[in-house]
Amino acid sequence: MEVTDLLARAMEAGASDLHLAAGQIPMQRVDGELQRMNSPPVGADNLIEAMADLLDDERRTQWAQGDELDMALELPVLGRFRVNLFRQLNGPAATFRLIPGRIATLEELDLVDVFQAIAQYQNGMILVGGPTGSGKSSTLATLLDQLNRVRALHIITLEDPVEVIHSSQRSLVNQREIGRHSSGFAQGLRSALRQDPDVIMIGELRDLETIRLALRAAETGHLVLATVHARSAASSIDRLVEVFAAEEKGLVRAMLAESLQMVVAQVLVRRVGGGRVAAREVLVATPAVRNLLREGRMAQLCSVMQAGAAQGMRTMEGAMRGLKESGLIRGHSAC
Questions:
Q1: CB–CB of 270/32 below 8 Å?
Q2: In this predicted model, what pLDDT tens digit does every residue of 279-329 receive, in sequence order?
Q3: In CATH, what number is assigned to the domain containing residue 50?
Q4: How many other CB atoms sit within 10 Å of the CB of residue 206?
Q5: Which residues make Cβ contacts (< 8 Å) with residue 65, sequence separation at least 6?
Q6: What phi, psi does 116 have (nearest 5°)?
Q7: How confident is the model at residue 14 (pLDDT cuts 50, 70, 90)?
Q8: Is 258 inside any structural domain?
């Protein structure tokens, strides 16, 4: 079994992911759906050896010892992949996610209006929410790439692992990988605050300490961009608040009311003719939104978004309706 051959076939089919598991037929995810490939079941020994050939010495040792690995892998000709290696009931397994070879433009991802708002911010927090596999990383990469091109900033990224490579343009970009360049997001964020940053990009807001530090960074003159696993703008905010103990929730809501600038929540929807397109909900932190955050009245955010088109806001339902009216999608089912 040649892993590189399977990856090449998956890429040719337009797959976003390739799944290999001992004893099972390889599978690829195309337009959000898993498909079996025309290939024999994966052999355990073959997969162990094939992956060992692609790893550096340190990771090869970890893989041989049975450790789980989550990393980015650059393969000649094929490109860059996010890879997770693990063991399961029948033996070793691997999941590959294709990282696009180039960063999409604002126009390609329909992010022009969102970026025009972000480009005005000097500080505060911008959240990109969505479920796993919804294109959050691609959206964040495009927004960061455009900031890099149009403003002279010091941009520090904290990622696990580093996926999209950014070359310094007008800005200076320093990308740090959690586990290799810093022990964790919280430690990396503490260090970043001592490195004269203008913009800090956090791959994922996962834990209480990282969220607390990110809020403080946003309050103290830095622009913080981060992803969060949530399906809507309101649930993206709730996700941050709910991490904290009950006695701290009021303070956290107050901090968010002061520092939050925008929330972009997205899902991927099947496009007419094949492929997928992002439907995005946008919440802009107007004075009315900030008051709702302070008071914890999250249920009213939808009404504010419905009435906030002039401020650049839209609901997920409105985004779906717009895609349908433009002929890009037929229904409202996200995938």
A1: yes
A2: 999 999 999 999 999 999 999 999 999 999 999 999 999 999 999 999 999
A3: 3.30.450.90
A4: 18
A5: none
A6: -55, -35
A7: very high
A8: yes
